[in-house]
Design brief:
By secondary structure, the protein is α+β, with helices and mostly antiparallel strands. The chain has two domains: about 130 residues, 3-Layer(aba) Sandwich (Protein Transport Mog1p, Chain A), CATH 3.40.1000; about 80 residues, no CATH class. The chain contains three helices and twelve strands; from the N terminus they run H-E-E-E-H-E-E-E-E-E-E-E-E-E-H. A five-stranded antiparallel beta sheet has the order 3-7-6-5-4, covered by helices on one side. A hairpin with a 5-residue loop joins strand 10 and strand 11. The longest helix has 27 residues. It is rod-shaped, with a radius of gyration of 29 Å. The two termini are about 60 Å apart. Bound molecules: zinc ion (2 copies). The site of one zinc ion has 7 residues, from loops.
Length: about 220
């Protein structure tokens, strides 16, 4: 198993575990349960920089039964989570005049937050797994040149810009460059076309078609 599929397997395990825990909490604490709304089928991109990092993340809202207070809901959530090995803390948060009890739980790098209030029957759940890099950064590979001094077509010369590479010599045919903190930016030589802008990917130029300026690159040429 390579590193990427091992990381994906680990992330999927965390995702399944988060889904199981949230499903148990939602079923226990709320009425008219719609677990399909959990939308934990695919990992989401958490950080677009290389290496790309993913997590499972979801938000769910339900209502507590009319006979159950928010305090009882918070206490029940805390004991369910602690019994399942989560580290749990509770605090109060005032949001626009609604006083929420906020339960925050951590386990294996995953987080669950549950908000409940005596001012509303709504109980909201937020869950996310640890963030996992799924594709290791690719080493920069130099492509093979399309023309070499041995394979240049008679009557042609190797392109002075890419020396026969054919691919854009600045970005090595990737179309993008790293621009600080591993962010990608469009290659400013080929403008993401990936091929050498002088020979347009041929790696060679017709000797008779060279401009005056281009001939300057070939001092030996008649
Ligand atoms: Zn070229
Ligand atoms: Zn380029």
């Amino acid at each position: 198993m390579d590193r990427t599929s091992k990381a994906r397997g680990e992330l999927d395990r965390l995702g399944r575990s988060l889904r199981a825990q949230l499903s148990a909490l939602i079923t226990d604490l709320t009425i008219r349960v719609h677990l399909r709304r959990l939308s934990l089928d695919e990992p989401k991109l958490a950080d677009p920089r290389e290496p790309l990092r993913y997590h499972y993340a979801t938000i769910y809202q339900g209502n507590r039964p009319a006979t159950v207070t928010a305090a009882e809901t918070a206490s029940r959530a805390t004991s369910l989570l602690r019994a399942a090995g989560w580290d749990v803390t509770a605090s109060q948060e005032d949001d626009d005049g609604i006083l929420w009890t906020v339960i925050v739980a951590h386990r294996d790098g995953s987080d669950i937050r549950i908000l409940t209030s005596e001012d509303t029957p709504v109980v909201s759940f937020r869950g996310q797994t640890a963030v996992v890099a799924l594709r290791p950064p690719q080493p920069v590979q130099q492509p093979e040149p399309v023309r070499t001094p041995e394979t240049v077509t008679p009557g042609y010369v190797l392109c002075y810009e890419c020396e026969g590479l054919g691919w854009c010599p600045r970005c090595a045919g990737r179309g993008w460059m790293f621009a600080g903190s591993q962010r990608k930016s469009r290659c400013n030589e080929c403008h993401a076309r990936k091929v050498c802008p002088i020979c347009r990917g041929q790696g060679e130029l017709s000797a008779s078609g060279l401009s005056q300026y281009q001939r300057g690159h070939y001092p030996g040429l008649e």
